[in-house]
Specification:
The structure is a homotrimer.
Chain A lengths: L9 H6 L1 H12 L8 H17 L4 H7 L4 H15 L6 H14 L1 H20 L4 H5 L5 H12 L11 H22 L9 H14 L27 H13 L7 H14 L1 H20 L4 H5 L5 H13 L5 H26 L8 H12 L18 H63 L4 H25 L1
Chain lengths: 477, 477, 477
C-alpha cells in the first residue's frame, strides 16, 4: 500500500521524472574513474537498463499515458497490487499476482476483482488521476478482495461473494478520501486503514452465524496455550520469515512469500531488506511474548512488522541509521500491538487485519524531535526509499551550499566594510592634508601678498586635484 | 437532529429571512404567465400561506423573539424535537410529540424532560443563542430522554429514572460543544454523537445487573437465525418502512411512523422523500445480508439509513442527481455499518443507537472530489434542502455572471489595449513629424541665420502645439 | 501527571521565575497594614521560606541546572513522580515515593525504574529539555511501571517483569510525542493517555493465559451484586476518600493515600482540596449508581474523579466559582464514565486505568462558551492553580487598564473634535468678517477712487492680518 494520496503534485512530478530518474541513479552509483572506459560504458548501460524496470518505472508510466485506456487500467491495477508493500511498480505487481495464483486461484481472482473495481470507483468519483495512476486507490481494493475470500467460511468458488466484494471495493476510494481529509492535517498517509475498516465491517456485519456470507469462526483464547520449548521446530521458524511476508496478502505458502521478496527486490532493495528484517522482528517478538508456536509458524506475528518496518525504514523517513533504529523499535512495538489487537478483536470474531501496522506506523510518524537526523519527507515527495534518500541528500547539500553562500556573503560584507573604512580613513587623511596645505597657503598669502594670484591658482589646482579623491569613495560606497 | 451548531452566523440570518424566504419560494415556483392573473394571485397567496408553516418557519421565529420567555422556550423545545430529523420547525415538533404520545405516555414525558433540560443547560452554559433557538441543543436531549426510557428495564413510570435522565440531558450541550470544537475543524456537524455517547454511557455504566437503573438485556447472536424465505410477510415488510422512520425516536408503532412522515412533509418534501427512501434501503439491505425477519419488521434496519439519506440527500450537500446517488450509496453503507455496529455493541449489552448513521454520514461528508456537481454547503448556510438548493443555484448563477463579467472585462481591456496602441502609434507619428520639422527648421536656421529669432518662435509654437497631444494619452492610460 | 508538553516556551519561563514567584506569593498574601511591622517582616520571611519548597520550586530548579547530571536526573524523576497529580515539585515526588514504599517495595521499585527509563528515553529522543526537566516525560513512566507490577499475576519480585517494564517505559515519550502532535491542535495536554495506551497494550497483548507475563484475571459482571444497605460500613466509606487518592498510583493503603494528600498540600492547597473533593464525588457516585460496596471501599470510584477535579478545578482553567462548579460536574461525569469504561474493558480482561479521567477532562477542556468567567489557560502558561490564578488576575487587570486607556483616548479625541469645531467656527466667522470688510472696501474704492492706493494697502494689511488666523487651525488639525 502506498504512502498516501499524492494529490496533484504527483502528476507533473511523474511527467518530468524520466530524465531525472536516470541522473539520480548515475549519481548514486559511485563512478570509479580508474576503470576502463569500456567497462564503465557497459555499467552505465546496465544501470540504465535496470532503471527501466526498477524503482517506480517512471519511464514506463510516461509511455503508458499515451496507450489504450484498458492497457492503462491494467497498469494501474498492477501498480495497485504492489502498492500494498509501498511499491509503485507494475512488474512487481505482476509477480505478486503470480504468487497469489500459486497460492489459490479463487483468492487471486477476488484480489483482481477488488483492485479493478476500487480503481474504477476512484475514476467515477473523480479522484486525482495521478494518485490513481500510481495505484494508490487499488491497494486497499486488492486487500479487501483477498481477505474477504480468505476469511469467508463458504468455501472457494462461492460466486455470490463477488457481490459484497465489489461493493466493498467500490467503497474503498470513498473511505480513503474521507480518511485522507483527516490524516492530511498531520501530513499522514491513510495506509491500509480503508481496508481494515471495510473488511472488519463486512466480517462483523455478517459474522460466523450468517446464511449468505458466513465468516470463519475466530474466538478469544480462554486457556493457557500448550508451549513446550523442546518441541520448537527451527526450520519452520526460519520459514516463518517468508511466510510472514506472504501473510501481508493473507498467503501462508512460503514459496509465495519468496516470490513477494523477489518482487520487492526488483523495485527497491531497501524495502526488501526491511521487509525481511520486519518479519524476523515479528517472529522474535512472538517467542518473547510466549505466543503459541503455530501462530508464529503461520506468519501471523510477521506481516504487520513487515509493513511497519518498510514504512518507517526509508519510505516516509529518509533512511539514516537513527531512522533504521527507529524502524526496528517500531517493529517490536508493532508486534506487541499486534498481539493486543488480535486478542481484542477475537472477542468480536475478527482477525487483527493490518490495524497494528497502521496504528504503530502512524504513531511513529507523528513523533516530533529536535534532532535533524530523523527527517520526515513531505507526503508529495515520497516515492521509494532510494529516491527519498537522494531527495534528502540533495536537500542537505542545498542547505550546506546556502550556508556557505551566506558565510561567503558575510565575509564579503565584512571585507567591504573594512575597505570602506580604509577609504574613509584615506579621505579623512587627505582632507587633513588639504586643510593643512590650505592653512599653509593662507599663511603664504598673508606673508606674500604679491604672489597672491599665482598661489591662488596653485591652491585651486590642488583642490581640484583633491576633489576627485574626495568624491571618489562615494562611488565605492 | 440538526446539522450543526450554526453559531452566530445564524442569528442575523434568521432575522432577515422572512422576506427572502417568500421570495425564494416564489422564485422556486415556476411562474406560468399563461394563467389567468386571478389564479396566479390565488397561487401566490397559497404559497405565502404555506411559507408561514413550512420550511424553518422563519417568520414565526422572528415573531417569537418578542414573546414571553417560557413561550420562546417551548418553541425551542419543539424545534429541538424536530431537529432529530434535521427539521427546524416547531409545527413538525408538535406533530412529533403527538406521535410520541400515541406510542407511549411515559416515553413522551421523558423525551420532553430531556429536550427541556438540554435546552436549559445550553442557556446556563451560555451557548450561542441562535443555535439554541434553532433547537440545535435540544435534539440530543429528546433522544437521550426517550432512549433511556425505552431501554430501561425498570418498566414505565419508574420516576427515579428522571434523575439520570436530567443529568444526561444536561450533559448534552457540554458534549455537543466539545465535539463541535473537534468537528468544526473539518466543517462537520456533530449529528447525534452526543446522544450516542451519553446513552451508551448510561447503559453500560449501569448495565443489566443493576439495582437502581437496570437496562434491558442485549446479547450477541451465538447461533444461526432461523430464516425460511417462505415465511416472509410482505405486508409487514412494507409496514417496516414507516416503522423504520418511527425507530429514529425508538418507536415501533407504524402509525407513529406515519405521523412522523407527515411532520417531515410539512417542513420539507425533499427530506420526507429521502426518509422514505432511506427506510426502504435499510429494509432491502437487511434482506440482502440475511438478517432475521423480526429485526427488519421492527424497523431496526431502517432508522439509521433514514437519517443518513436525509443528511446526504440535500441537507449538507446541494441536491443534484449525483448527490442523490451518493445518498443511496450512503444508505447501503449505513445499513452494512448498522449491522456491524449492532453486533459489536451487543457484546457490551448495548444497542447500536445512531452510531451507524453518524459514522457513515461523517465519512460521506469528508469526501473530496474534483467534480463540482457534489457541492458541500458551508455549515452556517445549511437550512433545509429546498433552501440549500436555492443557495446553490444562486451561487452558480453568481459564478456564471462573474465569469461573464470577467470575460466582458477581458474584452474591454483588449479593446482598450488596442486603443492605447493606436494612440501610441499616433504619438510616435507626431513625434516623428515634429523631429522632421525641427530638423527642417535647423537646416533653415543654418541656411538663414538672419531669420533665427522668427523661426525660433515658430518652432516653439509648434512644440507647444505638440505637447498636448504628447501628454494627452497619459490621461487615458 | 502534567498538563502537557510545555515545549520551549517553558525554558525561558522557568529561568525567570525565581523573582516573579516570590512577588506573586507576596501579592497573593493580603497585606494587612494594621499589623506591627515586625510581624509583617516575619510573615514575609515565612512566605519566602514557604515559596522555596511549595509551588513548582522554581528557585530549586534553577539551582539544579548547574548541578551534576545524575542529580539533575534524580530531580526530573522526582518531579515526574509528582506530575501524575499535576504537581511539578521534587519534594512532593519524594514524599510520594515514601508512600509507595510504605505500600509495596516491589511496586515502588518498578515505579522508579519506569520513571527513570521514560526520562532517559525522552533524552535519547531529543525531546524538549524544559518539558523533561518539569517531569512531563516521567509521569507516564511511573504509572506504567507501577500498574504493570500491580496487575501482574506473577507475584512480587518476578524480575523478568522489568524487561517489558523498561520497554514500555521507553515507549512513553514516543507515544507522548505522537499524541501531543494531535492534541496540540486543540491546545490540549496528553494527560495520562500514553500510560493508558501502553498498560492496556501490555495487559491485553499478554493476557491472563500467558506463560511469561500473566495478568490478573478481570471478568465482566454477570449477575446482580449483593448490596444490602444495612451492611454499609460508614468508617470504610470515609476511609475510601484517601484510598481513592492513593488509587491514582494503584495503592489501596489509606496511609499511603494520606501521605499523598500531604505531598499535594505542600505544593498547592487548591490542588489538594480538589483531590479530596474529587474522591468524595466518586464515592457518592458509586453509591448513587448502586456499585458493590467493595469497589467503593477499594477507592476504584475515586481516583479518576480526583484527577478530573484537579485538572478542571484550577489547573487548566483559572479558578472562578463557575469553574469550581464545572469541576464538580466533571467529577460526576467522570465517575459515570468510569463505571462505563470499567464495564467495557472488563470484557477484554482490562482495568479502567485512567481512561475515564482523560476522556472526561478532555471533553470539559474542549467546551467553548460565550462567558469570560470560564477562562482556559494557554498550555504554555499552565503551572499550578495558585499561579494560574495570578496570571488570570493580571490579565484581567491589564484588560481593564487597556479599556480605561481606550476610554481616556476616546474622551480626548472627543474634546479635540470639539476644539477643532470651535476653531473652524472661528475661522468661518473671521472669513465672513473679512468678506464683509472687503465688500465695504470695494464700495469705498468705487466711491473714492483717489484713495485707491491707500485703501489698497489697508486692505492688504487686513488680509495679512487675517491669514494667520486662517491658517493657524491647520496646525491643530
Amino acid at each position: 500500500m502506498p504512502g498516501s494520496l499524492f494529490t496533484k503534485e504527483l502528476q507533473p512530478l511523474m511527467a518530468q521524472l524520466d530524465l531525472k530518474h536516470e541522473n539520480d541513479k548515475q549519481a548514486a552509483a559511485p563512478v570509479q574513474t580508474a576503470e576502463a572506459p569500456c567497462l564503465q560504458r557497459a555499467k552505465a548501460r546496465l544501470l540504465k537498463g535496470v532503471s527501466y524496470f526498477s524503482g517506480d518505472m517512471a519511464v514506463f508510466a510516461k509511455w503508458m499515458e499515451k496507450q489504450f485506456f484498458l492497457l492503462q487500467l491494467l497498469d494501474w491495477v498492477l501498480r495497485g497490487a504492489a502498492q500494498v508493500m509501498f511499491v509503485n511498480n507494475p512488474l512487481s505487481g505482476l509477480i505478486i499476482f503470480a504468487g497469489l495464483i500459486l497460492q489459490n486461484y479463487w483468492w487471486a481472482l477476488n484480489g483482481f476483482v477488488g483492485t479493478l473495481f476500487a480503481t474504477i470507483s476512484a475514476l467515477i468519483l473523480r479522484q486525482s488521476r495521478g494518485a490513481i495512476a500510481a495505484g494508490l486507490y487499488g491497494y486497499n481494493g486488492i486487500l479487501v478482495g483477498l481477505l474477504m475470500a480468505v476469511f469467508s467460511n463458504a468455501g472457494n468458488w462461492y460466486w455470490w461473494l463477488l457481490l459484497p466484494n465489489i461493493f466493498m471495493s467500490m467503497m474503498c476510494p470513498i473511505v480513503s478520501s474521507a480518511l485522507a481529509s483527516i490524516n492530511s492535517r498531520w501530513d499522514l498517509p491513510v495506509f491500509t486503514l480503508p481496508f481494515n475498516i471495510l473488511v472488519c465491517l463486512h466480517m462483523v456485519a455478517t459474522g460466523h452465524y450468517n446464511h449468505h456470507f458466513p465468516q470463519v469462526l475466530i474466538q478469544p483464547r480462554t486457556e493457557l496455550p500448550n508451549i513446550t520449548w523442546e518441541e520448537i521446530d527451527v526450520a519452520k521458524l526460519f520459514m516463518s520469515v517468508p511466510v510472514g511476508i506472504g501473510q501481508v496478502y493473507g498467503c501462508d505458502n512460503p514459496w509465495t512469500g519468496g516470490i513477494f521478496i523477489i518482487s520487492l527486490f526488483i523495485s527497491s532493495p531497501i524495502t526488501c531488506a526491511h521487509a525481511v528484517l520486519g518479519s524476523t522482528i515479528g517472529m522474535l517478538s512472538g517467542l518473547a511474548l510466549a505466543a503459541p508456536f503455530g501462530a508464529i509458524y503461520f506468519g501471523l506475528w510477521g506481516y504487520n512488522c513487515v509493513l511497519a518496518c518498510i514504512a518507517i525504514g526509508g519510505m516516509f523517513y529518509a533512511l539514516t541509521w537513527q531512522v533504521h533504529l527507529l524502524a526496528i523499535t517500531c517493529g517490536f512495538f508493532c508486534a506487541y500491538l499486534g498481539s493486543a489487537i488480535a486478542n481484542i478483536m477475537s472477542a468480536f470474531g475478527l482477525p487483527a487485519c493490518t490495524w497494528p501496522f497502521c496504528l504503530s506506523a502512524l504513531t511513529f510518524l507523528l513523533i516530533t524531535t529536535e534532532t535533524n537526523k530523523i527527517f520526515k519527507l513531505p507526503l508529495p515527495k515520497v516515492t521509494y526509499p532510494e529516491k527519498n534518500l537522494c531527495f534528502f541528500w540533495k536537500m542537505k547539500k542545498q542547505e550546506k551550499q546556502e550556508k556557505l553562500e551566506e558565510e561567503r556573503k558575510k565575509k564579503e560584507e565584512e571585507l567591504r566594510a573594512i575597505d570602506d573604512e580604509m577609504i574613509l580613513n584615506e579621505k579623512e587623511e587627505l582632507r587633513l592634508n588639504l586643510t593643512a596645505m590650505e592653512e599653509a597657503n593662507d599663511m603664504q598669502i598673508v606673508s606674500m601678498p604679491e604672489a597672491e594670484s599665482e598661489q591662488n591658482d596653485n591652491g585651486q589646482q590642488q583642490t581640484t586635484e583633491d576633489y576627485p579623491t574626495d568624491e571618489m569613495p562615494a562611488n565605492y560606497l
